[in-house]
Design brief:
- The protein is an alpha+beta fold.
- An 8-stranded mixed sheet has the order 11-15-16-23-20-19-17-18. Strands 1, 2, 3, 7 and 8 form a 5-stranded antiparallel sheet that branches. A 5-stranded mixed sheet has the order 25-24-26-27-28, sandwiched between helices.
- Helix 1 crosses helix 2, helix 3 runs antiparallel to helix 4 and helix 11 packs across helix 12.
Length: 584
């Protein structure tokens, strides 16, 4: 028996623990509000939830009362007893308890299913388990009900809307406190909130899931794109642009029409079906086919910042993290089979350089052939082995994610970790034998014969918009100087200093720095507080002393300290931070 078998380091024990807490919640609900009907209550990654059909809306006051009752149940140390019943008796039991959702679940179980229940005190619930042996195993002071949302019964929008109570639980109170503190910090860093406050982007009812970037947001976005173009130019990529809409025959040829149509926006032009592109790949295939290629040109690295559209359910939309249109920083590498390993290693290095610069640690997953796939298994095996060989040769640790590859090939996913310990899947490398075959791509080899290239699909940011959301939360809106929409804010002490401030601003802008001048007739403390809230990296306080000495008083956003220096010294400091892309 391992030492961590009964700790949260063991995912099975953690889920069993939290599943038991969901039953304690349901028992508390039935004690305090017996008219409420039970639905389902599983453990989830962050805790647990339970769905209820209640004739009233649960409020924070209800949750507080339920928490108190749950703590009582923990102290009662009720044993959890499992028992089984034949289908008819199980159905009768739930009918007698007036639990229609449980009756429906029983009716939908397979004929040969074992129908089990768990009993704790006066409370009995239909459940496959497993559970802890007693409610006393749960630490009452280390559980918390966090929120209430709506949830359709069985995820079906045509069924009744239930109320889902979310909660979490830990073995120790200090672990709960640390988790709740992280949640509060995440709320403070929420990119949707900061996006509004900092004037970066907005969402509007006229375009749900389609972000509107505001002027400061566009500066941030374009700065990231400029960085992308620079590193790709150095890595030997050529940039292209392909149409946003292409006809049905193309999407049938690529396989998207059969495998991805439900996520595509379609229309009809001149009685012909068209689709707005959900991916850039098919257009990239046509660009390659546009002219003949020789083995001497390979590997051919072609990049595209393509605007793609994908249909997402309205309930899944989330700021910039889950949208219906985004800029995918795509690239396709056409190569010979002998070049596979080196090209994968090159992409891995590029991704590593970018994530390391931003200070993101990451882990790697290798996703294999899904059930819904194109091509024969021999090609899939060769492609998967090619990815494995490259990772192993580089000494990269990775985990296998069985069956989660793209429909056209296996892939390597890079999951970066932000300052709150949350992981985000951004970079990906997908090895594809299928699309070159479908599009009959060719190159002339050294033997003067026609050969089929192999292709890599890859992204670094994944989605420019989503990466902006991640960066906003990671930096809490306080972007490093090179990314900040406004890098310097000039603050005048009095109207007398306006001309001097305008001269300093001109010098900075001539050097390419982004500035704003606050010349309002307000107290300097008020101006500083506003600039601090706007998270501007540097504030220049300009008064009579500074003007007489031909200097600037530089206030640093990070520590609030003010240092007086010549403008040339400040320019040198700024140039270093911007050119080196410091991300502190």
């Amino acid at each position: 028996m391992s030492d961590n078998q009964y700790t949260f380091e063991n995912p099975e024990y953690r889920d069993t623990y939290r599943h038991t807490v969901s039953h304690i919640l349901a028992q508390a609900v039935k004690r305090l509000y017996p008219e409420v009907k039970l639905a389902i209550g599983p453990a989830i990654e962050t805790g647990f939830y339970y769905d209820f059909d209640a004739p009233f809306s649960f409020t924070r006051e209800h949750l507080d009362a339920l928490e108190a009752e749950m703590k009582k149940i923990c102290k009662e140390k009720l044993p959890l007893e499992r028992f089984e019943l034949p289908r008819a008796e199980a159905r009768k039991l739930m009918e007698e308890k007036e639990e229609p959702y449980k009756v429906e679940l029983i009716d939908d179980l397979p004929e040969d299913a074992v129908i089990s229940f768990y009993k704790q005190g006066e409370f009995t619930d239909l459940c496959a388990g497993p559970h802890l042996d007693s409610t006393g195993r749960v630490k009452g002071n280390a559980l918390k009900l966090t929120s209430v949302t709506g949830a359709y019964w069985r995820g079906d929008a045509s069924r009744k809307m239930l109320q889902r109570i979310y909660g979490t639980a830990f073995p120790k109170k200090d672990e709960l406190d640390a988790y709740l503190q992280r949640i509060e910090e995440a709320k403070r860093r929420d990119h949707r909130k900061l996006g509004r406050e900092l004037g970066l982007f907005t969402m509007m009812d006229e375009g749900p899931g389609f972000p509107f970037f505001l002027p400061k947001g566009m500066i941030l976005k374009n700065t990231l794109i400029d960085f992308w173009r620079e590193i790709h130019r150095k890595a030997g990529y050529q940039e292209i642009s392909t149409p946003i809409m292409l006809n049905r025959s193309l999407w049938e040829r690529s396989g998207h029409w059969d495998h991805y149509k439900n996520n595509m926006y379609t229309t009809v032009i001149d009685e012909q079906d068209f689709a707005i592109k959900p991916m850039n790949c098919p257009g990239g295939m046509l660009v390659y086919k546009n002219q003949p290629h020789s083995y001497r040109e390979l590997p051919l690295r072609v990049g595209e910042l393509g605007l793609v559209h994908r249909h997402e359910l309205s309930g899944a939309l989330h700021g910039l993290m889950r949208v219906r249109c985004f800029t995918q920083d795509d690239a396709h590498i056409f190569m010979t089979r002998e070049q596979i390993k080196d090209e994968i290693k090159g992409v891995c290095k590029l991704i590593d350089d970018v994530y390391s610069m931003f200070g993101f640690p990451y882990h790697i997953e290798l996703s294999t052939m899904p059930e819904d796939h194109m091509g024969d298994e021999a090609d899939w095996e060769m492609a998967t082995n090619g990815l494995k060989a490259a990772l192993e040769e580089m000494g990269k640790d990775y985990v296998i994610n069985e069956g989660d590859g793209a429909f056209y090939g296996p892939k390597i996913d890079f999951h970066l970790e932000d300052c709150l310990g949350r992981t985000w899947q951004c970079g990906t490398i997908q090895l594809d034998f299928q699309l070159p075959e479908r599009f009959e791509l060719e190159y002339t080899g050294a033997d003067d014969q026609k050969h089929r290239p192999v292709m890599i699909h890859r992204v670094v940011f994944g989605s420019i918009e989503r990466f902006i959301g991640i960066l906003t939360e990671h930096f809490a809106g306080a972007f490093p100087t090179w990314l900040a929409p406004v890098q310097v804010k000039l603050l005048t002490m009095t109207d007398r200093n306006r001309a001097y401030a305008e001269e300093i601003q001109r010098q900075l802008e001539d050097k390419g720095f982004r500035t704003e001048l606050d010349e309002r007739n307000e107290k300097i403390g008020y101006k500083i507080r506003e600039a601090q809230l706007e998270k501007v990296p540097y504030m220049l306080v300009l008064g009579d002393k500074e003007e007489e000495a031909g200097q600037v008083a530089v206030r640093d956003r990070r520590d609030g300290k003010t240092t007086v220096m010549p403008i040339a010294e400040f320019v040198e400091k700024l140039e270093y931070e911007v050119k080196s892309r410091l991300c502190k």
